[in-house]
Amino acid sequence: MAIFASSLLVGPTARASEAVERGAPLYAEHCASCHGKDLEGAPNWRRIGPDGLYPAPPHDETGHTWHHGDRLLFDYTKLGGEVALDMRGVTDFESGMPGFTEVLTDIEIHDILAFIMSTWPDAVRRHQEQITRQEASSRQHE
Ligand code: HEC
């Protein structure tokens, strides 16, 4: 019985680490050009650029990716910043984040996000998991 229980624990962890392994090269190919190869973000990402848009923020713990729940991060990547915010009633923000619907499958997006999250310290990861739980329960009331 003990063996059975521990093999149950290994399952999801192994699957998660496979997602991270698939996500890392996909991140390098599709996201690093704007968000930085070490997830460090564009230079001066806190200031609006000459094009009137915010540059790409870091995806490491110095940015604010971890201030958002899984659903928002997924929508942002799949649909692009403008559509993802529009769906949430924010209509006055012009976003430089393109949508990847035509480029990446849902699983690939999931894997890239798993890779990004794998770089966060435990405390940051726990905080983001908490936001994801709140996000999920607020959606139940929609
Ligand atoms: C052409 C440049 C570009 C590429 C390529 C790009 N992004 Fe972005 N991304 C941006 C910009 C600019 C922003 C900031 C504007 C905004 O938040 O709407 C952003 C914001 C985001 C955000 C919101 C972060 C936050 O804290 O609000 C997420 C999530 C995101 N990008 C994920 C990705 C992922 C994953 C990839 C690769 C699949 C990717 N981006 C590729 C330009 C890019």
Give the topology, please.
Layout lengths: L1 H29 L1 H4 L34 H10 L1 H6 L19 H13 L3 H18 L3
The protein binds heme C (HEC).
Q: How does this model look, in words?
A:
The chain is mostly helical. The protein has one domain (14-139): Orthogonal Bundle (Cytochrome Bc1 Complex, Chain D, domain 2). It is built from six helices and no strands. The protein has helices spanning 2-30, 32-35, 70-79, 81-86, 106-118, 122-139. α1 crosses α5. It is globular and about 45 Å long. Bound molecules: heme C. The site of heme C has 24 residues, from α2 and α3.
TL;DR of this structure?
With 142 residues, the chain is an all-alpha fold. It has six helices and no strands. Helix 3 packs across helix 5.
Task: Supply database-style keywords.
single chain; 142 residues; mainly alpha; Cytochrome Bc1 Complex, Chain D, domain 2; globular; binds heme C
Share of helix among residues? 55-70%
Number of helices: 6
For this structure, the CATH topology is Cytochrome Bc1 Complex, Chain D, domain 2
H and E order = HHHHHH
Strand segment tally: 0
Average pLDDT rating:
92
